[in-house]
Amino acid sequence: MSGSADLVTPALLLSLGLFAIGVVGVFLRRNVITVFMCVELMLNAVNLAFVAFSRWRGTLDGQVLVFFVLTVAAAEAAVGLAIIIAAQRNKDTLDLDAFNLLKW
Amino acid sequence: MTLDAILFYVFAAAALGSALVVVGQRHPTYSAFALIVTLCSLSAVFGLLGSPFIAVLQVVVYAGAIMVLFLFVLMLLRVTREERPAGGGWALKATAIGLGAVLAAQVGSVLATVARGPGAPGFNASTVSVARLLFSPAYLYVFEATSILILAALVGAVALAKRDL
């Protein structure tokens, strides 16, 4: 592992790219599950930023934070998919526009 | 250019390309498979950045557990292509592009002011050192709170997915 190559800045740019793609997906997709996957994509982009800054600073706190983000993402996926199953059972569709029960 | 850098750019391109497929694909199942490619490429990127622990965690937790859950739900539900074209009208598209521009500006300012230089030389976050910090008193309460969160999520998921609440 040669520490000489500057990978921090490219890693941050990659993180930006992935996060932006995730944001665009959340706004443009209509399927609940695809939108959920875009959220996971954004979480991963944030993880990449944590790892890049951890490498830049030479400290390990970023790595620990990534561990916690992974845990929360796993919990979020379990609960979110359960909600999607329940919503699909009620509305018989996965289209986001159909889920307007909480809309005022 | 070192081998590390070449591999980094190869996997970064793979991650970006498959992420575009995730968003551009109309069928959620194909999106899920593209997302698996993204996550595995990111795992390689983590490894190249000197974080082998996170790299393995990425494959085991994300590509292994979370994506299997996604695919399981996709197979469970009747999933079809989105019939209507993507995009919820002019306002949503403008919001998406505006948010993207704000993000780019923020990261640009960070890159311009903070992140300079190659980082700590020979940085390698070994599993032992990460574990020492993770189980140290600094993160003790956070770690315990995480276990409560997992338990709550478990109970919540079972309660939500049960028929006839």
Short description:
Chain A is mostly helical and 104 residues long. Chain A is built from 3 helices and no strands. Chain A has helices at residues 8-28, 32-57, 61-91.
Task: Fill in the keyword field for this structure.
heterodimer, A: 104 residues, mainly alpha, Helix Hairpins, B: mainly alpha, Four Helix Bundle (Hemerythrin (Met), subunit A), 2 domains, 6 helices
Structural description of this entry:
The complex is a heterodimer of chains A (104) and B (165). Chain A is mainly α. Chain A has a single domain, classed as Helix Hairpins (Orthogonal Bundle). Chain A is 75% helix and 0% strand. Chain A contains three helices and no strands. In chain A, helix 1 packs antiparallel against helix 2 and helix 2 runs antiparallel to helix 3. Chain B is mainly α. Chain B folds into two domains: 82 residues, Up-down Bundle (Four Helix Bundle (Hemerythrin (Met), subunit A)), CATH 1.20.120; 39 residues. Chain B is 75% helix and 0% strand. Chain B is built from six helices and no strands. The termini of chain B are far apart. The model of chain B has no long low-confidence stretch (mean pLDDT 85). The chains are: A mainly alpha (104), B mainly alpha (165). Chains A and B meet through helix 1, helix 2 and helix 3 of A and helix 1, helix 2, helix 3, helix 4 and helix 5 of B.
What average pLDDT do the residues of chain A reach? 85
The CATH class of chain A turns out to be: Mainly Alpha
CATH superfamily membership of the largest domain in chain B: NADH-ubiquinone/plastoquinone oxidoreductase chain 6, subunit NuoJ
**Number of helical elements of chain B:** 6
* Largest sheet features of chain B: none
Write the layout of secondary structure elements.
The complex is a heterodimer of chains A (104) and B (165).
Chain A (H helix, E strand, L loop, with lengths): L7 H21 L3 H26 L3 H31 L13
Chain B lengths: L2 H22 L3 H21 L3 H25 L12 H25 L13 H8 L5 H22 L4
Helix pairs in contact in B: 1-2, 2-3
